[in-house]
Design a protein that fits this description.
The chain is built from 21 helices and 8 strands. With 494 residues, the chain is mainly alpha-helical. It has a domain of 172 residues: Serine Threonine Protein Phosphatase 5, Tetratricopeptide repeat (Alpha Horseshoe). The strands form 4 sheets. A two-stranded antiparallel sheet has the order 1-5. The protein has a two-stranded antiparallel sheet with strand order 2-3. The protein has a two-stranded antiparallel sheet with strand order 4-8. The longest helix is centred in the first third of the chain and has 26 residues.
Length: 494
């Protein structure tokens, strides 16, 4: 999808038409009345929807909710810098919090763009197969945006048409269950028309596997275990997904879009306007002009298993910069770079791209096959099929320990250290549930999933993990809808 991203440059702020706010005709190059006429227009429009998934600016702050609000990280950075992130971390925020409004506005912009595609593209005279695929991509992306929004804010407006009239702009909240129902409908529709794979020029487009993967995740969040397994079966039959040999290769620009990637959000450096990832500036140390936000805490470090001989799960040092190890560029890590002594490294590229940091070509992998394997293990265990559940769980652990067989940079390369990450043996549903939760935390750490996992695990787990923050499940399960939406949408009354 590197080429798709480039095509987004010519448009898409114009696609959220001035019909939202003005009665006057748009006086620019494109409008909804003049734009959606050709196959190229359709391709440009869907590129604009993909563009909102990316981390090309400071609006897309999914990481604040996924990581900082969890027990894995604190805000980090300078004490007074981006204080609204700290308020989110402490569950001590107001509706005027900029992080709340940024993510709300950004993802609803993505929904609006998807709705324009779904409204106008069906009438374009173009190749029918391509048109159906574009519509499937739009439905997948709309489902992606709604999945994130509903898990952050709970009851939210469900908008399925472009904002062409006040009635389509000012929409009341819908129950969480209704949002999930629409997500599943969009994903089901998308799975019927999306391609199984793409050529190198179209990498990053949503595939059948991506639709089935997000479908499985949606069912998992609803504790519909059997349907989650059915979706996973469909994913596994749609394409040949497999774990890469070295865990770190999921987070290097040289090994992106690999066999483990199910949905990967593309970035491209060196473009103007920027199409590169801003995450490397968020998370890099100040010595490289970074903001050193999203700092891992000791509790996260302690989660990683260590052998009696002192060998730690290699995923720790693939995920976190810490004393005694190298930073992503080969320099010795300096623990003074962070107030916690640690920095997360998965989204920081080994070389800093010209012209400035904050323009990285490193992708964000939203869903990997290891995530799917752990979802499969969880669903099987909850269906009292624990002896089957340990197989996908142990595949994830096996890959982690066998990094020693394939990564020449690991000390002792060539042999797996004794007793490192042994296979889990089934000893009952409760114990296996805890083992799967542990594995998700270390396998997917700092990939913006942890907080949402804690919330779906329920009150007891969430409050135990976040007890030091004043978190209350009854009060804080969902974040408040931002004041900016309440001010402009009279259909929301509370």
């Amino acid at each position: 999808m590197k080429t798709i991203k480039i095509s987004a440059l010519i448009s898409v702020l114009l696609l959220s038409s001035c019909h939202n706010y003005l009665d006057e005709n748009l006086q620019g190059t494109f409008s909804s009345a003049t734009f959606y006429k050709s196959q190229d227009d359709a391709l440009t429009a869907i590129a604009g929807v993909y563009n909102v998934t990316a981390f090309v600016n400071t609006m897309n702050q999914l990481w604040v909710f996924g990581d900082v609000a969890s027990d894995d990280a604190v805000k980090g950075g300078l004490a007074g810098d981006q204080i609204d992130i700290q308020y989110i971390d402490q569950f001590n925020y107001l509706r005027t919090n900029t992080v709340l409004s940024n993510v709300w506005q950004y993802y609803y912009e993505g929904i609006s763009r998807a709705n324009y595609v779904l409204y106008y593209v069906p009438s374009i005279g173009m190749d029918a197969t391509l048109r159906n695929r574009i519509l499937g991509e739009a439905k997948f992306l709309r489902a992606y945006f709604y999945f994130n929004l509903v898990n952050i804010y709970g009851e939210i407006p469900l908008k399925l048409l472009p904002p062409l009239s006040p009635a389509q702009i000012n929409v009341a909240k819908s129950p969480v269950a209704d949002i999930y129902t629409q997500i599943l409908k969009d994903l089901s529709d998308a799975s019927k028309v999306l391609s199984k794979t793409y050529s190198s020029t179209d990498l990053g487009r949503a595939t059948k596997g991506a639709a089935f993967g997000l479908m499985a995740k949606t069912y998992l969040y609803q504790q519909n275990w059997a349907s989650a397994l059915t979706a996973i079966d469909s994913l596994e039959s749609s394409a040949s997904y497999s774990l890469v040999q070295v865990y770190e290769n999921n987070f290097l620009d040289s090994t992106q879009n690999n066999s483990e990637s199910i949905f990967e959000i593309q970035h491209l450096n060196g473009q103007s306007p920027s199409l590169g990832s801003f995450l490397d500036q968020y998370f890099s140390p100040a010595t490289y002009n970074g903001y050193y936000f999203n700092a891992p805490v000791q509790n996260f470090i302690n989660e990683f298993e260590t052998t009696s001989g002192g060998v730690v799960d290699p995923r720790l040092d693939y995920t976190v910069g810490r004393a005694g190890n190298k930073w992503v560029n080969g320099e010795n890590f300096d623990p003074t770079w962070s107030a916690t002594g640690y920095l997360n490294r998965k989204h920081v590229q080994s070389k800093f791209d010209a012209p400035i940091i904050g323009n990285s070509g490193l992708d964000y992998v939203y869903m990997r096959y290891s995530d799917v394997l752990l979802m499969k293990a969880e669903a099987l265990n909850e269906l009292s099929r624990g002896t089957e559940a340990i197989a996908p769980l142990n595949l994830v652990r096996k890959r982690a320990r066998e990094s020693y067989l394939y990564d020449q940079g690991l000390p002792g390369f060539g042999a797996v250290p004794a007793n490192l990450l042994p296979d889990v043996v089934y000893a009952g549903q409760s114990d296996l549930r805890l083992a799967i939760q542990h594995e998700r935390r270390v396998e997917l750490g700092f990939e913006f999933h942890r907080y949402f996992d804690l919330m779906r695990y329920g009150q007891q787990v969430a409050e135990a993990a976040l007890g030091g923050t004043g978190f209350s499940y009854a009060k804080n399960r969902y974040f408040l809808i931002p004041q900016s939406e309440l001010d402009t949408n009279p259909a929301i009354t509370d």
